[in-house]
């Protein structure tokens, strides 16, 4: 069986379906690590699914993948297997609690933290293959502005930047916004402020960031970058409790401040960018996805066990390692 002819064009260019369409692929990114990208990706997906959307989350934090830990899933097949030809995309697509689908990176993906031509091509093919079948695809990227992170974001129609009120996180968010504007020609980005100390602080943080952008960034084509604030999520012990229980806060504590913040963010996102519509997922279509252009080293058998075996907090503490632009 052969697959459809796949293009490698990112963004809102014509895709494998041959249509120019409205935004469907959203990268969730941040300058600093540990600010809540994975938390937002998973809970936003659940909130959007609750609104009736068919959502896919791709774990593209290739070096520090931990979506599996947050969702308490132990996949038999991961993106790593798909990329190395050891599994099919259909096998790697899992349904997560919250009724959305996920593609988990797998612990062997460390070799993909370098942006080789193989990684580029496979990632582009992956996005073009899945995009017609979902209303929305959320890419949970790594932190910082490494080439692999920037490439993952370049696959997205829209970037959602996460910042926290902490000065270092704000400075790193600014650096990310600037690079995305200068290198990818993005003139607007969405912003989520996470871990605010009180309601309304997010608005203040967004205004502060916007004023620094207006003062210091001029894009090569002229003009500057407009932030589109999606909302805020307050710092809430329910989030940490949910992580401890390896559940989504949207499901475990739906009435919590954090869950309500994320429902509001989902509503605003769906208002700004209504679900794009999707093709049905006929059985077998995604089975023969990716020809492997060149052999890729597989995981060393003596390597440490997958992170799913670790306690959630231990693993998440590791996720705080940043690719700090400074
Ligand atoms: N709104 C919040 N309130 C309380 N704790 C939070 C909140 N958002 C994130 N956290 C904590 O920060 C940790 C790291 O979040 P995570 O989503 O893994 O960050 P990232 O993916 O950006 O590295 C979470 O495990 C959680 O304990
Ligand atoms: Mg993460």
Automatic annotation (TrEMBL):
Domain of life from the UniProt record: Bacteria
Family annotation (CDD domains): FlhG-like (cd02038)
Gene3D superfamilies attached to this UniProt entry: P-loop containing nucleotide triphosphate hydrolases
Pfam families xref list: AAA_31
Compositional bias segments (type: Polar residues): 1-18
InterPro entries: AAA_dom (IPR025669), FlhG (IPR033875), P-loop_NTPase (IPR027417), ParA/MinD_ATPase (IPR050625)
Entry keyword set: ATP-binding, Cell projection, Cilium, Flagellum, Nucleotide-binding
Gene Ontology MF, one: ATP binding
SUPFAM superfamilies: P-loop containing nucleoside triphosphate hydrolases
Signal peptide: none
Chain coiled-coil ranges: none
GO cellular component: cytoplasmic side of plasma membrane; cytosol
Transmembrane domains' residue ranges: none
Residues in AAA domain copies: 24-172
Keyword Protease in annotation: no
Region described as Disordered: 1-21
GO terms (BP aspect): negative regulation of cell division
Protein name from the UniProt record: Flagellar biosynthesis protein FlhG
Organism this protein belongs to: Sphaerotilus sulfidivorans
């Amino acid at each position: 069986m052969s697959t459809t002819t796949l293009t490698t064009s990112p963004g809102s260019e014509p895709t494998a379906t041959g249509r120019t369409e409205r935004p469907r692929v959203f990268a969730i990114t941040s300058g600093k690590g540990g600010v809540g990208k994975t938390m937002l990706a998973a809970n936003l997906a659940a909130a959007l699914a609750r609104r009736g959307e068919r959502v896919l989350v791709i774990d593209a934090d290739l070096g520090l993948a931990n979506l599996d830990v947050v969702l308490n899933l132990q996949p038999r097949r991961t993106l790593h297997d798909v990329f190395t030809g050891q599994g099919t995309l259909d096998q790697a697509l899992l349904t997560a609690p919250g009724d959305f689908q996920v593609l988990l990176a797998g612990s062997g993906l460390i070799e993909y933290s370098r942006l080789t031509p193989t990684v580029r091509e496979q990632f582009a093919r992956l996005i073009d293959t899945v995009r017609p079948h979902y209303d929305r695809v959320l890419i949970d990227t790594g932190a910082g502005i490494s080439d692999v992170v920037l490439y993952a974001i370049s696959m997205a129609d829209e970037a959602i930047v996460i910042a926290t009120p902490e000065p270092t996180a704000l400075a790193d968010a600014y650096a990310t916004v600037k690079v995305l504007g200068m290198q990818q020609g993005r003139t607007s980005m969405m912003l989520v402020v996470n871990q605010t100390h009180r309601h309304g602080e997010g608005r203040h943080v967004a205004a502060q960031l916007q004023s620094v952008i207006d003062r210091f960034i001029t894009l090569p084509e002229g003009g500057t970058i407009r932030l589109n604030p999606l909302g805020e999520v307050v710092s809430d012990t329910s989030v940490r409790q949910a992580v401890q229980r390896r559940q989504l806060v949207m499901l475990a504590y739906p009435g919590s401040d954090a869950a309500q913040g994320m429902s509001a963010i989902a509503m605003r996102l769906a208002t700004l960018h209504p679900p794009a519509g999707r093709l049905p997922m006929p059985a077998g279509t995604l089975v023969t996805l990716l020809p492997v252009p060149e052999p890729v080293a597989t995981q060393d058998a003596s390597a440490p066990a997958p992170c799913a075996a670790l306690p959630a907090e231990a693993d998440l503490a590791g996720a705080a390692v940043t690719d700090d632009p400074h």
